[in-house]
Amino acid sequence: MQPFIYHIGTQGQPWGEAEKQQWLAEQRIKRSYQSDVLSQLSELESQFEVVQYGELDYQAQGFSRYPLFLLKSRNWQADKPLALITGGVHGYETSGVHGALRFAKDHAAAYVADFNLLIAPCISPWGYETINRWNPLAVDPNRSFVANSPAAEAGLLRDYVLALDVTPLVHIDLHETTDSDNSEFRPAKAARDGTVNTNWNIPDGFYLVGDSENPQPDFQKAMIDEVVKVTHIAPADEQGCLIGEPLAQFGVVNYPKKSLGLCGGMTDARFVTTTEVYPDSPSATPEQCILAQVAAVVGGLNYVREQLSAKSA
Predict the structure, then answer these.
(1) CATH number for the segment(s) 17-312
(2) What is the DSSP pairing of strand 241-242 with strand 245-246?
(3) Quick check: 47 and 104 in contact, CB under 8 A?
(4) Are strands 65-73 and 170-176 parallel, antiparallel or unpaired?
């Protein structure tokens, strides 16, 4: 099968500035960060301190400024463990953004007695508005959670979290795997990098990506068990894989999060996972996708709370 050849660039040659500018010129605003995300933050001010941790200035690229906000528990106490929930690292992955907000709105109150909560619902607002994986510089934020980050989206949040000088006990990062990963984003990445793209089979259903250096299988299972109440779990393909990775357990594959610069690897949290919802499934509605994200967070926090309770008993 011939690899999909992207329409920008020359096959085998990495993009230069001209190709990046050609790609950027094709991007259009398709929805509103202000209307869809920021408008909801005021409704949460009774439960959370709404903290601006930075701003993205993309005026030079022909767009605008994007203030970056997170939600921080009002009853923050030094003796409570920190649970970090992140969404919208890839702005086009819609249910991650709205799953984080829905958890904050409908479920967070059940956990603030046991955890300090930090929720960053939309890390890449330009990507949210233009339905993109990258930022305007053609950089993937979810390979950029490293020191001296090449993506401000990643660097600003990483700097804020590390400055707290508190290692989260839990970090759940909310993502999607979409059909556009094969039709647009993976071919674009191969073109940008001057490599050959080979598409993978898009899993039909929900799955998790644990940390291969710290897999925590019981934690992953607790989330899968909660999500299955809402939507279906992705089966492995004919090779026993999901997205090209061997299945570690039902509904779970593992990646080396730190070495890849993934959001889930930016701290030394003990319990870490990345959710992956499939919004293009004929068996899942947009609302189910949001509820699956919420269920994963609920399942994960319930598991950790039970572990803490058993340890203190």
Answers:
(1) 3.40.630.10
(2) antiparallel
(3) yes
(4) unpaired
Distance from first CA to last CA of the chain, Å, rounded?
Answer: 59
CB 219 within 8 A of CB 249: no
* 151 Cβ contact partners less than 8 Å away, ≥ 6 residues apart: 135, 137, 139, 140, 141, 144
Number of H helices, E strands in the chain: 10, 10
**pLDDT in 10s for each residue of the chain, 313 residues:** 445 679 999 989 999 999 999 999 999 999 999 999 999 998 999 999 999 999 999 999 999 999 999 999 999 999 999 999 999 999 999 999 999 999 999 999 999 999 999 999 999 999 999 999 999 999 999 999 999 999 999 999 999 999 999 999 999 999 999 999 999 999 999 999 999 888 888 999 999 999 999 999 999 999 999 999 999 999 999 999 999 999 999 999 999 999 999 999 999 999 999 999 999 999 999 999 999 999 999 999 999 999 999 988 7
Ramachandran bin of 150, using left for φ above 0, alpha for ψ from -120 to 50, beta for the remaining angles: alpha
Strand, helix or coil for residue 181: helix
Interior angle at CA 8, CA 280 and CA 150, nearest 5 = 80
* Beta strand pairing call for 82-87 and 170-176: parallel
* DSSP-assigned beta bridge partners for residue 116: 82
Tokens of 46: 């009774």
Distance, CA of 284 to CA of 179 (rounded, Å)? 14
Please give the C-alpha separations between residue 242 and each of 94, 142, 166, 247, 251, in angstroms, as whole numbers: 21, 19, 33, 6, 8
Amino acid at the residue 134: W
Task: Measure the CA–CA gap between 273 and 107, rounded to whole angstroms.
Answer: 19
**Residue 86 structure tokens:** 């992140």
pTM listed for this prediction? 0.97
Domain boundaries, the chain: 17-312
